[in-house]
Amino acid sequence: MQRLLFPPLKALMGSPGLRPLVPRVAPRTQCGCSCGTRCSLRPGQYSTISEVALQSGRGTVSLPSKAAERVVGRWLLVCSGTVAGAVILESGLSMVDWHLIKEMKPPSSQEEWEAEFQKYQQFPEFKILNHDITLAEFKFIWYMEYSHRMWGRLVGLAYILPAAYFWRKGWLSRSMKGRVLALCGLVCFQGLLGWYMVKSGLEEKPDSHDIPRVSQYRLAAHLGSALVLYCGSLWTSLSLLLPQHKLPETRQLLQLRRFVHGTAGLVFLTALSGAFVAGLDAGLVYNSFPKMGESWIPDDLFTFSPILRNVFENPTMVQFDHRILGITSVTAITVLYFLARRVPLPRRTKVAVGTLLALAYTQAGLGISTLLMYVPTALAATHQSGSLALLSVALWLMSELRRLPR
Q: Is 97 helix (H, G, I), strand (E, B) or coil?
């Protein structure tokens, strides 16, 4: 058998671009043939030859599947972190136009800054809110928006360039190619949606003297797509990096798994409702807790007609809904914790359950503090970061409880 196998291996190793990646694996059985054909291997094993892909007449080496999965998983974990950074970074309306390449270079001379400032003075935010700011103050808010946009471009590159490289190298399975294409497409859509959102805050509204702000609908769409991108990247990363537990498929485990999925959806919906709170400044309507003013249910919940408009356009109703969703999320996570104690779980899964419970009450405390202190920017940003952390741990727990593939 050695005389049959080793000469072809030496011939292959002598070819340019071909190198052995793993030690040789003994064949399952003696083939007894004299044709020099490679013997079959046990399921899950691979040889040097099986990892060689000949494409377009040139030898290119693919990583073993497990090693490739680890590389792709770490890449997507980094990508999800860049998306989280984009969600947390504050943006504004100081940059009044959008160019993919041109705006990457900031103004460098006094004349360029004055021209940029004059463009800003033609829009509602300057006329109504910032009519007395100086050029130095304008530079500060301009660089805040510039940082957000440049970070968005970094997110796009973090997805698209490595994806093209991994695709070229053959490190993506067929199913993973579909996921990666969807994530890269969502990144591009997210950038376009961001500018569409900003445009709503630059539009003139002659009959309104309110503080200029972007449409709460477009803000929710922008945040929602970012959360979907974040969740998709993080879930895929965890699926590739964390080994699955061999849990017995009992009735209690099935019920717990379903409850975890529902709780994660509730956490996602609560985070999304925060976009309507931010878009309408609903956090400044009733700054008391647990009551809203002097009553549990305020009188101005249904001031708009038709009634459905109140859910998305009435600041009182938007704050009320966010409170209810937050309280329901904390209650569901508390119930989940006690349900999990009745099921024998691995240590790592128990850590995920405990972390989820601790974060839920921390996030609730941050939300209440933000409300009582009239929404200071730093505390509001911390509360928003907490929603991402809570959603991340919910996804981690879902990954811990996922079924083994058949």
A: coil
State how far the alpha carbon of 278 is from the alpha carbons of 161, 231, 325, 337, in Å.
Answer: 33, 21, 15, 30
Residue 300's nearest CA partner among 279, 285, 278 is: 285
Residue 292 forms beta bridges with which residues?
295
Query: Within its chain, how far is the Cα of 207 from the centroid?
Result: 38
| Euclidean distance between CA atoms 29 and 37, whole angstroms | 13
Question: What is the CB neighbour count within 10 angstroms for residue 318?
Answer: 26
DSSP states of 5-40? HHHHHHHHHTSTT----S-----SS----SS-PPPP
Between CA 263 and CA 311 the distance in angstroms is 22
Are residues 253 and 343 in contact, defined by beta-carbon separation less than 8 angstroms?
yes
Which has the closest alpha carbon to 130: 181, 92, 177, 162?
92
Long-range contacts of 304-313 (CB under 8 A, 24+ apart): 312/216, 312/217, 312/276, 313/216, 313/280
Question: Quick one: tokens of 224?
Answer: 């929602």
Q: Give the length of the chain.
A: 406
What are the structure tokens assigned to 146, written together?
Answer: 């510039």
Residue 329, φ and ψ in degrees, nearest 5:
-65, -45
Predicted confidence at residue 406, as pLDDT, reads 62
* Rounded Cα–Cα distance for residues 241 and 97 (Å): 41
**215: helix, strand or coil:** coil
**Which residue stretches of the chain have pLDDT < 70?**
1-64, 206-209, 405-406
Whether the CB-CB separation of 183 and 103 falls below 8 Å is answered with no
Q: For residue 252, give every residue at least 6 positions away whose Cβ sits within 8 Å of its Cβ, in sequence order, or none.
A: 342, 343
- CA quadruple 27, 32, 38, 39: dihedral positive or negative? negative
Q: Is the pTM higher than 0.70? A: yes
User: What would the two tokens of residue 32 be?
Assistant: 């007894």
The dihedral through the CA atoms of 248, 254, 255, 256 has a sign that is: positive
| CB neighbours of residue 88 within 10 Å | 14
pLDDT for the residue 263: 98
Do the bridges between strand 52-55 and strand 58-61 make them parallel or antiparallel, or are there none, so unpaired? antiparallel
pLDDT at position 98: 85
Give the model's pLDDT for residue 257.
96
For the stretch 144-159, what's the b/e string if a residue is b when 16 or more beta carbons lie within 10 angstroms of its beta carbon? Answer: ebbebbebbeebbebb
